[in-house]
Each structure stands twice: as C-alpha cells, then as structure tokens.
Specification:
Number of helices: 19
Mean pLDDT: 93
CATH architecture of the largest domain: 2-Layer Sandwich
Strand content: 15-25%
Number of strands: 24
Radius of gyration: 22 Å
CATH class of the largest domain: Alpha Beta
Low-confidence stretches: none
Helix content: 25-40%
CATH superfamily of the largest domain: ATPase, nucleotide binding domain
Distance between the termini: 63 Å
Structural class: alpha/beta
Shape: globular
Length: 510
Amino acid sequence: MKYFLGVDIGTTAIKAALFDENGKKVLHHSEEYELLKPSAQIVEQIPDVYWQTFKNCVNYVISNSGIPKEKIVSIAMDSSAETIVFLDENMNPLDNFYVWMDSRSELEADELNSHFSAEEMIFATGQTPIDSVHPATKILWFRKNKPELFKRIHMMFMCDDYILWHMSGGLKMSHPSSWCTSYLWNINTKTWWPEMLEYLNINETQLPYLVESGTPVGNIKHEVADELGLPHGLLLVMGGQDQSCGAIGVGNVTPGIFSESTGGALMVCTTCDNPVFDSAGLIPCNYNVIPDKYMIQGGAKGGIMLRWLRDTLCQEEMDRETAGEGDAYDLMTELAATTPAGAEGLFLMPFFGGAGCPNRDIYGRACLYGLSLGHHKGHIVRAFMEALACNITKIVEYTENLTGVKVTQIRSLGGGSLSPLWCQIKADVTGRQVVTMKNTQDAACLGAAILAGYGAGHWSSIADTAQNLAVVDKYYDPNPKNRSVYDQLLKKYDLFIEATQNYTEELSKV
C-alpha cells in the first residue's frame, strides 16, 4: 500500500492528512493560529508561525498514523491565495506575511484601477477590477510605504511557496492557480503580465518559477525529512490553491458541478473548459489545478466572521469549551437552532472589510440590521449563518447567468459543512440541494493528496481520480416551509445593497 500526504495551509489553521492509494484517510490533524490584527485594516502573520505549525501538524500525523514512513511516497500542499511575503537576498522575510484580508492598500487599489482600465484587467488576467485583497496592491503599498525595504526584495512568496522552499532547501517555485489572482499573471499567455510588473517596478526574477499543479519538483531535504519524521527521498509535488484543491476533493472537476467552501473565506466554485471573462467585472475566472482547465470562483468573507462572533460575543461558549462541555461553535449552533428561520427580522450584511462577489464594493462594511429587545444571542448567530447563505445564493445566481449552466446541487466543504443546521440553512436559502461528501472535512487535503499521487505516477488523471473518490454522505433538500421567509430575506439583502452602493465610499471617508 502506498500513502500520500496532503497539507492545507488555511487562513486561520493548517491541516495535514494522510491518505492511502484508494483515497481512504488514515489520519488528519489540524492546528489553529492567531492572526495579527493591530488595526482594523492590517492583518498579518509571522512567517515562522506557518513553518512551525506546518511541522507540528505533519509530525503529529506521521507519529500517530501507525504507517511506516517508508510507505509515504509524496506530499503536496495547498494554501489560500493572495497572502504574500517579501524576502531579501538571504531569503529572510522583510516583514510579516500580508494576509489576503489585509485592506491597508485600498488607495493603491484605486490607483491601479485608474491606471489600468477594467477591460485591460479583465481580459488580461480573468480577474475583476482590483481591490485590496490582491497582491499587486500590497506590492504597490510596500513600495510606497517601505521604500528602503522594497529595494531589497529578492523574492515574493505565498504561504505554500515559503514552506516548499523550506522543505526542498531552496526551490523558488509555485503554481498558476494561486498567482493567477495576483494581477501579475496573464491568463491568456500563461506568463507574467509585463505591463503590471513594469508599473509596480518589479521583475520576473523576483517572482517564483511557475509550473502546473501535480508536477514533481524534487525531493525533501534530508535534515527536514528527519525533523518531520518523513522518509529521505520523499517526492515533493507542486500543489495548488486551496479552493481548487477543495473542489477536486469533492469531485468538482467538470462543468455543471458547483462546490462551496465555508472556511475562513467563503468560495463558490465551478469548473470551466475555457476562460470565462465577465465583462461586467463582478466575478473572476481563475486557473485550475487541473492543467488547461479554469474555474469561476466567487468569494467573500466566510467562517472568519463566525470566528469573530465567537471571540467577541461568545465568551461563555468558549469558557464552556475549555471546561469540556462541548465545542464553542457547536454551542453557538445550538442557540441558532432554537431561533426560527429568518431570525425574526434580524439580518446581517456580511461585508467585514469589503463586499465580496458579485457586489465588488471595496468600501462595504458589515451591518446587523433589525435588532430589537426581543432578540438574543441565538438570533445573532443565526443571522450570521443566513447572511453567508445569501452570499452563496447571489454568487450561484450570477454564475448561472454568466455561464448559462443551471445549478441544482451544491457540494459543501470546509468547516461550515460540519454543521447540519448551516447546511440546511444553505439549502433553504439557495433553494438548491446541498450535499456533503464522505471526504468533506478533508476535501482540500484530499485534493492536495490527489495531486501528490498524480505527480508520483500512481494516478494517471486528476479529474478521473477526483470523480472516483467523491462519494456523497448526506443530502439536504430545501424545506418549502421556509421559502417565503428566505425570499423576503433575499429581497432585504438586495434592497440594502441598492440603497448603500453609492454611499459606502463617501461614508468610509467621514
């Protein structure tokens, strides 16, 4: 029996999982970390936190799996895109990682949107008009605000690039599925976009060499193998963007299949055979981890909002978790379950630091509307869950109109998929069947492991393997009794966006 290791480097946690050659999970382990948020706009992470947490997770899995390390053939990783770090000539970080949700570069986003037309950006990169999430804006901010450090940039990495460099002892490589959202890469030519590089005053030598996901790139450094408990000669295989890996982990590999992932971020994805350019500039088309395939990915803030709610207003539930009375999120969900659909008129606009697709309001902010003396904590938790379901609905509807492909089923993955209540809410609000898969909890890790096995030559096709390993676990059909309530909620959602879309920029300046 051969074994493959998949590692998911997420916004708030890292997860490692070991799979056998039949796609059966042997063991997984995850470990959370705290983000640095010194102000409302700044969100960072210390580079070594990623590396140390990665080592902890892999060590745990290898030490406790009971599998002889010599049977582990290869490893691949995935990570969230847009989280970037700048390194000097000795490969030492010049600053912390700037996490994707960091919004300090809003002015730089405005500058780039003024310099490049929307059409230029859409048809060069497949992306929408740029906002502060994306690396090009962060590079420009770094150039303006830390000019001496900017002059010392030797290399720019995303999270998995940084860990691959450590594991290999010096590989400066990455994959298009993450860098396609940087606005530095041309989706048509599959090369760096020279006009953007010139404007930012950077060059290709400061960027990693890109290869297709699933490409074998070398072997693990002996000292690192010993440190992690992995075999000498372990094959390193190029991984991919977390959402793309999660999609293949639930079999989303052909047009017409939709998947949604509620992790730190919310992403709704569908596979395309060719690039799909949205001339309205509201939803992006990314490069897939499957070579020569593409993926429409509509995203927004996701589970990070529920984590904010937990950490800010649910100390009681966190204390109960510490006392061994259950998981804090499960306790919050129990409160939401006692609240009727629609949260009795309370609803949330889920724009914590900018509206996601397909609204594209970089100045949008969250608003909890309709509070009354009759509402309690359970109403607030349910309003958060329903808000994300509204966002999913809008992304799916927009993508249907863009592609002409009707969606009847949504495959759910990520931490949010572990909540039966949340899955049912998503089905009720979207009006579509939601399913979780046998591998839902580990979909991104499985996707990475499929790439690892493909790169090692064990599987001959990424897509065929993903479809063969995707097995439905639970079905959630829309409850018709809640249709009218959620139709009203979606109408409120639309009315609120229409009423505020012309004012949020001005309000942000007051």
